Structure to design on (281 residues):
């Protein structure tokens, strides 16, 4: 994946985290995903279509997911599962949307698909033929967010 | 009488958030749509004073719903409220009659400012 695609994700994530969680995010070190990797317990998946194709997975531990959802809901006690899941799905949607604005500034026009949720333990994920990169973001007391990005330029996909 | 608003967003979280912001500021939320198709249907049955419209939604997206609502009522006041803040989305929404464009995540004041301005006019 081209290095220039990383920064839009980092910037968008930091902007969204500051506004929704009131915490100062910190970028960890990037690494490549192996062909098949084990996902965290709570994942929000968004597809990206347009000049770039692929997807992004926002991964959280169960504890971090609960902590972030609670913060997004204004510290509400007794949060129904449907509502906390929706808050985290919307978090993925907001980061993806803000990222796509930044990708457009680089000349890549993309749309995003509505988010879906993948939950469980020991889930194996493969992005098949689009190599994936992990962008870890520390969310202060909430824990950490693992962003797995696999993106290709559309022309490159066609040629493959 | 309180101004009547229809909220459109596929995320329950966002519908709850917008409803809280609007009702706390004296507006009445008369309906909640979870996709574009529901928004079009609820617009014609509820005749709200204003609609908030997400873009990325299953079934029918917010740009298509905006077009259909404006075709049925050229006076419809629709405020886009979406994470898709890129230029082509803003241009397409405005060309199709959207009155304002709020990018998520937003501050509650931004929503109230947009809605109050449009409903005062
Ligand atoms: Mg949406």
């Amino acid at each position: 994946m081209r290095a220039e695609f990383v920064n839009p994700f980092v910037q968008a994530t930091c902007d969204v985290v500051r506004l929704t969680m009131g915490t100062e995010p910190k970028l960890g070190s990037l690494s490549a995903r192996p062909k098949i990797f084990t996902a965290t317990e709570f994942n929000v998946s968004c597809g990206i279509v347009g000049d770039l194709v692929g997807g992004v997975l926002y991964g959280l531990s169960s504890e971090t997911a609960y902590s972030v959802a609670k913060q997004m809901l204004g510290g509400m006690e007794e949060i129904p599962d449907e509502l906390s899941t929706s808050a985290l799905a919307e978090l993925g949607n907001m980061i993806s949307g803000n990222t796509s604005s930044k990708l457009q500034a680089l000349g890549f026009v993309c749309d995003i698909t509505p988010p879906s949720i993948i939950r469980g333990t020991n889930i194996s994920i493969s992005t098949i033929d689009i190599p994936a990169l992990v962008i870890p973001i520390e969310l202060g007391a909430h824990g950490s967010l693992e962003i797995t990005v696999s993106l290709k330029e559309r022309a490159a996909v066609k040629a493959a | 009488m309180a101004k009547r608003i229809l909220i459109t967003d596929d995320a329950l979280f966002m519908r709850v958030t917008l409803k809280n912001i609007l009702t706390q500021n004296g507006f009445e939320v008369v309906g909640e749509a979870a996709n574009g198709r529901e928004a079009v249907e609820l617009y014609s049955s509820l005749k709200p004073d204003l609609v908030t419209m997400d873009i990325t939604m299953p079934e029918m997206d917010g740009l298509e719903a905006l077009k259909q609502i404006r075709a049925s009522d050229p006076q419809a006041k629709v405020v886009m409220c979406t994470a898709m803040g890129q230029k082509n989305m803003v241009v397409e929404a405005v060309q199709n009659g959207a009155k304002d464009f709020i990018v998520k995540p937003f501050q509650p004041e931004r929503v109230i400012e947009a809605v109050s301005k449009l409903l005062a006019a």
